[in-house]
Design a protein that fits this description.
The complex is a heteropentamer of chains A (about 170), B (about 170), C (about 550), D (about 400) and E (about 180).
Chain A (H helix, E strand, L loop, with lengths): L4 E5 L9 H7 L8 E2 L12 E2 L8 H5 L5 E3 L5 E3 L9 H5 L5 E3 L5 E3 L4 H5 L5 H5 L5 E5 H17 L12 E4 L1
Antiparallel strand pairs in A: 1-8, 2-3, 4-5, 6-7
Chain C lengths: L3 H7 L2 E5 L8 H13 L3 E5 L12 E4 L5 H14 L5 H7 E2 L1 H8 L4 H8 L3 H13 L2 E5 L9 H14 L9 E3 L5 H4 L4 H5 L11 E3 L3 H7 L7 E5 L3 H4 L3 H9 L3 E6 L4 H4 L3 E4 L8 E4 L5 E5 L12 H11 L12 H8 L6 H4 L6 E2 L22 E2 L3 H9 L21 H6 L2 E4 L15 H7 L3 E4 L1 H6 L7 E5 L4 E8 L7 E4 L29 E2 L4 H4 L9 E6 L1
Parallel strand pairs in C: 1-2, 1-5, 2-3, 4-14, 5-6, 8-9, 9-10, 15-19, 16-18
Antiparallel strand pairs in C: 7-20, 11-12, 12-13, 15-21, 16-19, 17-18, 17-21
Helix pairs in contact in C: 1-2, 3-6, 3-7, 3-8, 6-7, 11-13
Chain E lengths: L5 H11 L15 E4 L2 E4 L2 E6 L9 E7 L2 E7 L17 H5 L9 E3 L8 E3 L2 H19 L4 E4 L8 H13 L3 E3 L3
Classes of the chains: A alpha+beta (about 170), B alpha+beta (about 170), C alpha/beta (about 550), D alpha/beta (about 400), E alpha+beta (about 180).
Chain lengths: ~170, ~170, ~550, ~400, ~180
């Protein structure tokens, strides 16, 4: 099974500096992600407007010319020659993933596949000094959250049957 | 620590009693067997946590983590396709045909409940809707050997907690 | 064995010794333990590892592995010094208390702490609490898996006797019943030795010393084995030696459900039925209920029920007379069970049934009588004294702490080269080598991992999840490191039961030796007494060094 | 299970994909009245303008349709529905038996009688054949008259506006796209169109078309003016393709009435796309949205339900884009609702951007974005959810 | 510690422990169960037992549908496991129907240790064993043969039946604590 990866923005760490947006735009296309300032946005990933590379992408479903396709690696990519600029994908995507260039052609995050092939992280991730933007895979993310929660709860464990290990000791 | 969750508008709720859990993982395989869940996604996962106090003593805690069917569920709020909704029993219901696999729910769920399997769409604990509609305990509760997971009406659970406290109190007074 | 329905209702304190109740026998131990604790019973756990059940305890004593006998003797000495022992019980139902105290009297709290590493205050508190409550001593196998394991059990049992915590509801010393107690009512002889057959006594091969025995057996050597219901290569110590021994066979037949380490070395592999595809009978070795196993499914694929296989092989080898073709498992079952056994009561849709009290009384030894020559608890045992003559160094009439082989105390020279002692838990997710191949289990277990104390790891430059090599002069095993204070400094935990071909097997590293109570020599024997000779493999006598791979 | 899907537009193709996924053993016949493989009608203006090559009009390669159990009947439209026998009669004479039927026959251009409407200079733009014909005819055309000012007219204009060519809109209303846009948004769009060579004739209608001079014709307007024209396009809107159903007992008003699962009044017969009348997401009123995105969604849900699922289709949320060259307008929900609404407008003439939020009883009911439509997807979600909005500024702040 | 008298113990045992030799089944066996969040009728529910090397020896209710083990539950009437199984027990359906099971007799074709086999019939397998047993007895005597079994399945009947054959054959005998 290919592990699904996507960008995650940790709003606790993001200070809205915009380095990620600059780094993305520096690749020679309009920035393919946008970030709200963390103060205005308490929601987890909602601060990030970027493609989530959905398994059943709404953008691709609505595209009249089948310009948008899910690749075998799970990354949703446009075929620019097919794009007529109708923006139906932009309206359909609830996550702000679609970005149009000056020519009116659809563009979107490709997780920096080319950089990935050379072993580098996506430009936005590399640019984030706060470690707020990360490329995560869904399975690991779930496990991480669960461990973090257990850590949070573990410190407060009391044993109603008697009070936990009051004393322990050994070599 | 007792934690009350999964208030079902119908009849029963699930009590997760962390003080009884020994991390045996039986609920995990029971859940997978009951729901024929393929390897990979873990609707229920028991996580162990180790902490060390100032004296160097080690304490372990075990936390069974499934979907808590939160009353104010963040996953419902962020799901862009309304694939998640509250059903008549009060459970957070996933309509898989609406799921587009965007992963939004995972990032807002504090329990890591959303799981992604071979088809890369979300799946999770459904709260044993059918069992609870028939007033049966959830599979994890029915099959838990340590009594850490219990599914009953709030009245029954409250009685259970009170009687065990009373017994403990009586024993200590001896 | 006092049955849990009784002890859980009456005990005031459970002293769980060498027993990871959260992983093994979880229903008896955890379920009934919580029943007792809900009633207010206290829990004291003795285990070098912080197991889940230890984390639930009021007191947790963590002796250095294999020093448990010293701990028990120290507790006895402290109890007697505080006059908390049961003089009346000792006088009426035991013998040899003074000889016991000659030994135990040397175990001051200070000396006990020095040997075991358990703080003196904790030893004293545990001893006092144990002595002054209606206390159940629940023993597991952990402390027995050393060459001194029989001595340790001897000492722990003495602790219960000194306090008079025997034969009373809620107060007893529970440890594993060896076979005979719960299977004694079955007509094994009637099945194994058919009347009229010419059956000769043959030589005996020790299962606990199987590898050496295979190599040592002469006149004739062992040349053919049919292997079933066990893992010869995964689960015996010194897997390499075992493989060498197997190479000398003319043939090895494996009856297995999966392609295991064993089948790789087999000449013929036969498909085994699971428990859902055949008849059987299940006496427990700890609880007192008997169950029958009935075929639930047709044999899957071409698998064959075990009984059918042996009967068919026997018929083809010329023993048709003793294996009637028309007999099903049920007929064999009738032959095995006593004629007056209520078969219908124990079988689907009925059952289970309690065994008759004469085989397993719910409150054993309630009358203060014991199955010893004197009828008393022999704190000084004449039988042991006699065996101490025959097997010097293996036995003592009174419990003593003797350092176990291949441990820091028992073999300092080796410990200088391989300073870490391996404790090999049985994880909840496996029974020995079984279940680990199933996807549901694999996703819970993850890759093979060893627990290392952070101090030991730091000294070796090992970080969490580093790939490490655990080795000694016999072999090595590659696993991931998990840094945790659940293990004591100087010890490594590596679960038992990982397959060699999928990595992380611990038995590769273990020296093949049998743990007392008797020296089994090369494993080829003429006589064997289950009660006195019962010996096991000291799986935890293992010193290693660890490095980053 | 035998499925027959009538129509190979967005709804029909989405249904085909869904049925195939949900029931790999299904037998599916896809019927299309048009010859040749299914193409994207939405993209015809781009083909006509030359922006898109003809081969890219086809969303799927031939191999996409080729799968076990799928049969294609192109150029053979359905002519009759025999409900009692559960058969569809095709024009070619074949009868197709079905267990589940999807009617997704789409719509056709609305025509209106007027003197001269049958002259050779008069065309419609709806099918690929239309587009091919127009491509030839438009080659040398300098003056084009479009009768109508709705979405179809706009699309035609978009295809035909080119340097050296004037395109006249005959527009009965005060402004273009009266059903979709408010005055402010329309004005911005009109400005862009006018700069590209469009001429708007507001508040008038077409009275007559007269032949000549030469290859040209003359369009007479109701105010008496006369427009010489190389080409006349009739673009007065569309009607659901339901005539073929004759008096088949299927409940209908403007379109076929369907329940939440998109099943019509006849069991096992579903409808999706431009023929289905469904409740509007905002008003709850029955509508025939005739929108691409709605058709895709309905096709998907209808297909799954045909294959045995029990999904309910969301009420139609009207969301559309109007693109002229690089200028984009998006309309969402019901921005033209009048009763009890509060409208918040922000217009920046210099940058030619405009955005408006329409609230009703504290909830967002519609929005129009012009010039910058970045927020469209986000607003669409707010509309779908019926989110309460206390302060419109909050909405704009929340847009990432 | 106050000691219970013999009479008290006798009374308490009668109260707290079921009588010997009488079926403890009280709960009627179900005819349906839940699976994949729906209620399903099963073909039968069979009461059986777990045989692993574990002293709980749990009572099992096995649910069978269409010839497959659909799921397993603990026997609610079993005084020890009281209706539950363990992490391993609940994987039995996966184990029984695992695609990795040895499905038919396999005869080695490669070198020992390589794990290469070819499928053979049971007939061929029995002939193969018998031929070697005869040759072994001829060449080395019957004590050159033995079984190896340990605690992989602690079911008690099977090893009595193998024991009958091994005793008749005169094989070396495996002893120790199992």
């Amino acid at each position: 099974m290919t592990v699904k990866q996507l960008l995650h923005l940790d709003p606790q760490r993001c200070d809205g500096c915009g380095d990620c947006v600059t780094a993305c735009a520096a690749l020679g296309h309009p920035a393919r992600l946008r970030v709200r300032s963390s103060a205005a946005n308490p929601g987890a990933n909602g601060a990030l407007a970027c493609c989530r590379h959905c398994e059943r992408p709404l953008c691709a479903a609505v595209c009249p010319t089948a310009c948008l396709q899910v690749g075998s690696n799970g990354v949703v990519l446009p075929r620019p020659e097919r794009c007529v600029g109708c923006r139906l994908c932009l309206v359909a995507c609830p996550l702000g993933g679609m970005v149009f260039d000056a020519q009116g052609k659809a563009g979107k995050c490709d997780l920096c596949l080319e950089l990935g092939r050379r072993g580098h992280p996506p430009a936005c991730v590399a640019s984030c000094a706060k470690g707020a933007l990360q490329l995560v895979d869904l399975g690991n993310q779930s496990a991480l959250q669960r461990r973090a929660l257990a850590e949070h709860r573990g410190a407060h464990l009391k044993h109603h049957l008697g009070g936990g290990p009051s004393r322990a000791g050994g070599a | 620590m007792r934690e009350e969750i999964m208030m079902a508008a119908g009849e029963t709720m699930l009590l997760i009693d962390q003080s009884r859990c020994v991390g045996c993982h039986a609920c995990e395989t029971a859940c997978k067997m009951e729901n024929n869940v393929p390897p990979g996604p873990r609707w229920m996962e028991v996580v162990e946590h180790e902490s060390v106090d100032a004296a160097g003593d080690v304490a372990l805690s075990f936390l069974p983590l499934n979907c808590r069917h939160c009353a104010d569920a963040p996953c419902i709020a962020v799901c862009p396709t309304q694939a998640l909704a509250r059903d008549g029993l009060g459970l957070v219901r996933l309509e898989r045909e609406r799921c587009i696999g965007c992963g939004e729910c995972l990032f807002v769920c504090p329990f890591g409940a959303p799981q992604f399997g071979e088809d890369r769409l979300m799946q999770k604990c459904h709260g044993c809707r059918e069992r609870r509609a028939r007033n049966l305990p959830t599979a994890c509760a029915q099959y838990c050997p340590s009594g850490a997971l219990r599914c009953a009406t709030p009245r029954e659970l409250s009685h259970l907690v009170r009687t065990s406290r009373a017994a403990l109190g009586a024993a200590r007074a001896d | 064995m006092q049955t849990p329905e009784v002890w859980s209702r009456h005990t005031e304190l459970v002293l769980m010794w060498g027993c990871n109740a959260s992983a093994a026998g979880i229903h008896q131990e955890i379920g009934y333990l919580y029943d007792a604790m809900e009633r207010g019973a206290r829990l004291i756990v003795v285990d070098p590892i912080v197991t889940a059940v230890a984390s639930k305890a009021h007191l947790h004593l963590r002796p250095r592995p294999s020093t448990d006998a010293a701990l028990a003797l120290g507790m006895i000495n402290h109890i007697v010094s505080r006059n908390l022992h049961d003089q009346d019980y000792l006088e009426r139902h035991t013998q040899g208390f003074s000889q016991l105290m000659e030994e135990a009297g040397q175990w001051t709290l200070e000396r006990t702490r020095e040997v075991t590493g358990v703080p003196e205050g904790l030893i004293a508190q545990a001893a006092e609490e144990y002595a002054t409550h209606r206390s159940l001593l629940e023993c597991g196998y952990g402390h027995q898996r050393y060459t001194n394991g029989h001595r340790t059990q001897q000492a722990i049992s003495a602790l219960a006797a000194v306090c008079g915590h025997m034969g009373q509801p809620g107060a007893h010393c529970n440890f594993m019943e060896v076979g005979a107690a719960y299977t004694g009512f079955l007509n094994s002889a009637r099945v194994q030795n058919p009347p009229g057959a010419d059956i000769k006594k043959t030589r005996l091969i020790s299962i606990s010393h199987f590898g050496p025995a295979l190599r040592a057996a002469q006149d004739p050597p062992i040349k053919g084995i049919i292997k079933w219901r066990g893992s010869l290569i995964t689960q015996q110590p010194d897997a390499r030696g075992m493989i060498e021994a197997v190479k000398g066979l003319d043939f090895l037949v494996s009856i297995d459900q999966f392609l295991t380490d064993d089948t790789d070395w087999s000449d013929l592999v036969l498909p085994a039925c699971t428990i859902f595809e055949q008849w059987g009978v299940h006496p427990s070795y700890r609880h007192q209920y008997l169950q029958l196993q009935v075929p639930v499914l047709e044999p899957q694929h071409e698998s064959m029920p075990d009984i059918d296989f042996w009967a068919e092989l026997a018929r083809r080898m010329g023993y048709e007379a003793y294996f009637p073709r028309e007999w099903t498992g049920l007929d064999w079952l009738r032959l095995l069970l006593p004629d007056d056994f209520p078969l219908e009561q124990a079988m689907h849709p009925h059952g289970p049934v309690r065994l008759p009290e004469r085989f397993c009384p719910p409150v054993p030894n309630w009358d203060g009588n014991f199955q010893t020559p004197s009828g008393k608890i022999e704190l000084y045992s004449g039988v042991y004294a006699e065996r101490a003559q025959r097997f010097p160094g293996e036995w003592d009439p009174v419990p003593r702490y003797v350092p176990s082989a291949e441990s820091p105390d028992g073999d300092p020279e080796r410990a200088a080269r391989y300073p870490l002692l391996v404790v090999s838990q049985h994880p909840a997710t496996r029974t020995h080598s079984q279940f680990g191949n199933l996807p549901y289990i694999q996703e819970i277990e993850g890759p093979a991992t060893a627990m290392l104390h952070p101090d030991d790891a730091a000294a070796r430059g090992i970080a969490e999840h580093d790939r490490i090599r655990i080795y000694n002069d016999r072999a090595d095993s590659h696993v991931l490191a998990h840094l945790t204070r659940k293990v004591l400094p100087g010890t490594v935990e590596l679960d038992s039961g990982r397959w060699i071909k999928t990595g992380g097997n611990v038995n590769l590293l273990i020296h093949p030796r049998a743990a007392g109570p008797r020296d089994v020599g090369d494993g080829v024997m003429a006589e064997y007494d289950m009660q006195l000779d019962g010996h096991t493999i000291p799986y935890f006598n293992l010193l290693v060094e660890v490095e980053k791979a | 299970m035998r499925h027959v899907v009538l129509g190979a537009g967005p709804a029909g193709l989405a249904a085909l994909a869904s049925i195939r996924r949900a029931d790999p053993s299904a037998r599916i016949t896809l019927v299309s009245g048009e010859p040749g493989p299914p193409y994207a009608r939405m993209a015809l203006p781009y083909y006509l303008s030359g922006e898109l090559s003809g081969r890219l009009l086809y969303p799927h390669p031939a191999s996409w349709y080729r799968s076990p159990g799928v049969e294609l009947r192109f150029g053979d439209p359905a002519e009759e529905l025999d409900l009692p026998r559960r058969e569809v009669l095709l024009a070619g004479g074949d009868r197709l038996r079905f267990d589940r039927l999807l009617i997704a026959t789409g719509s056709r251009p609305q025509l209106r009688e007027a003197p001269g409407i049958h002259l050779p200079q008069v065309h419609t733009l709806w099918t690929l054949a239309d587009a091919r014909r127009l491509r030839r005819k438009a080659a040398g055309a300098q003056e084009v008259v479009i009768w109508g000012a709705g979405m179809v007219a706009f699309l035609a204009a978009k295809a035909l506006l080119a340097p050296g060519r004037r395109v006249h809109f005959v527009c009965r209303a005060e402004h273009l796209l009266r059903r979709a846009l408010d005055r402010e948004a329309a004005a911005l769009l009109e400005q862009v169109l006018e700069e590209a060579g469009a001429v708007l004739h507001r508040g008038v209608n077409l009275a007559e078309i007269r032949p000549g001079p030469g290859k040209r014709c003359r369009v007479l307007l109701t105010d008496g003016r006369e427009l010489p024209s190389d080409l006349v396009l009739v673009a007065l809107g569309v009607l659901p393709n339901l005539d073929w159903l004759g008096d088949a007992p299927l409940a209908r008003r403007q379109g076929l009435l369907v329940d939440g699962s998109l099943e019509t009044s006849a069991s096992g017969v579903f409808a999706a796309g431009d023929v289905a009348e469904v409740p509007d997401c905002i008003t709850g009123e029955p509508v025939v949205p005739a929108l691409w995105s709605v058709a895709v969604d309905q096709g998907r849900v209808a297909g799954l339900n045909m294959a045995g699922h029990r999904l309910s289709c969301d009420p139609a949320l009207r969301a559309n884009t109007i693109v002229f060259h690089r200028y984009v307008v998006a309309t969402l929900g019901c921005p033209l609702l009048q009763d009890g609404t509060v409208v918040h407008r922000q217009l920046d003439r210099a940058r030619r951007t405009y955005r408006c939020l329409v609230l009703s009883r504290g909830r967002l009911v519609g929005a129009i974005l012009a010039g910058d439509v970045t927020a469209a997807g986000y607003l669409r979600t707010l509309l779908r959810r019926g989110v309460r909005v206390a302060d419109p500024d909050e909405v704009w702040e929340a847009v990432p | 510690m106050r000691r219970f008298s013999a009479e008290e113990i006798r009374d308490l045992v009668v109260r707290e422990v079921p009588p010997a030799g009488i079926s403890l089944a009280r709960t009627p066996l179900p005819t349906k169960t839940t699976w994949e969040d729906r209620t399903v009728e099963v073909d039968r529910v069979v009461k059986t037992a777990c045989s692993r090397n574990c002293y709980d020896t749990c009572g099992i209710l096995a649910y069978v549908k269409d010839g497959r083990l659909l799921k397993v539950e603990g026997d609610p009437d079993h005084p020890i496991n009281r209706g539950t199984l363990c992490v391993k027990g609940y994987t039995y359906p996966q184990r029984v129907h695992s695609p990795d099971r040895v499905q038919h007799p396999l005869l080695r074709t490669g070198e020992r240790g390589e794990g290469k086999f070819r499928r053979v019939s049971w007939e061929e397998a029995f002939d193969w064993i018998c031929e070697r047993l005869h040759a072994l007895r001829e060449r080395w005597g019957s004590e050159a043969f033995m079984e190896y079994l340990y605690s992989g399945n602690r079911e008690f009947l099977g090893k009595q039946v193998s024991g009958r054959f091994l005793a008749l054959f005169g094989a070396s005998k495996l002893v120790g604590s199992f």
